[in-house]
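Batch job 17 of 40 flagged for manual review because the log was empty.
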Amino acid sequence: MAIDRIEKVLAQELEELGSQGTLKGQEQVITDLLPGDGAEGPRYLLAGEGDRRFLRMNSNSYLGMSLVREVVEAEEKAVRTFGTGPGAVRFISGTYQPHIELERRLAGFHGREACMIFSSAYATSMGVLPPLITAETVVVSDELNHNCIINAMRLARPQEKKIYRHLDLGELDTQLAEMAGKCRRAIVVTDGIFSMRGDHAPLPEIMAVARKYDDRFPENVLVVADDSHGVGAFGETGRGTEEYTGGERVDLLIATLGKALGINGGYVVGSRQIIGYLREKSPFYIYSNPITPAEAAAACAAVEILSGARGRELLDHLRSMTGRFDQGLVDLGFETIPGEHPVVPLMVRDTAKTTAMVEHLFGNGILATGLKFPVVPQGDEEIRFQISADHSAADIDYALQVLSDFKS
């Protein structure tokens, strides 16, 4: 059967994305990885680029865990024991001992009663929020929250949705006050680290606002934070935005295994009662295969490393390289958004210049992500650099020299 008419419509939509500047286009394909030698970090080869070696500054692998020998060996050992895939969803016969061990370790790592793992961090937010959002719930969300939170809210269909200006706790306060007495339940949801900017949510202050109105909602004000970019990359021991900001813990913490921990999958930690409820009600958990037993074993090894002296060393080096790059940008006269997270935005504030800078970086063997209008508001165009514990001082200095050459 010919499907030419729908293909024509879809082609037109893709053309519109191209004209708007939001078409992602052909993906860069990594064909090989060359390990670092101490003086410099890993380099990557790309399809179509021959033997040109690229420094990767657009990766979420903040600690370089995916290349750590103990993590690789843990996955290899488990795959030989359990095979390459789980073969079923969790409640049928897809739960393996490494899944249980990982959930135990993550709950302990975050000081919570319980944990459940999902196939991805995106699936975690989509699987956690809708089951907790009823027709008598108001959801209050930061305007810069990740797409997974936005889509979870759309899927859930709460009684009311409120969006407060980025980090504007006064508006959060006003919105909860407005809805008190009108909804039985309130859920305040925020990113921990906002991935485009590298800034963080003031979690203790958000908790204080929530507790201020908690008694005015019969089913409480629940605070949920997705700290996928924070856990493993932020805080003295890598416990994320909660650790960095101190104070009372959020009610539910969502995070990922696929960024600083270097594996794959997502998870949520919280009270035993809420996690038990989600195991029974979350379709993204019930009807989807979990991460593989081997991935779970590798993640256990990564959490063990992060929890010990080796983890402190990685975090110290990551902070050092982040500070070196951030200060280097300032010294060169570039504008950044102050912060200690390894997402370091270079504010260009011009679409054409952002494109030219990304091309200049690529031409000099550096992979970085340009964010341009209309992906970001006009005037907020930036290049998002992501620092890793894999990077050496020489890598950072090379990137700064390439940026300096663009200015001159």
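Reviewer: the log was empty due to a logging misconfiguration, but the result itself is present. The longest helix spans residues 309-331. Unflagging and moving on to job 18.
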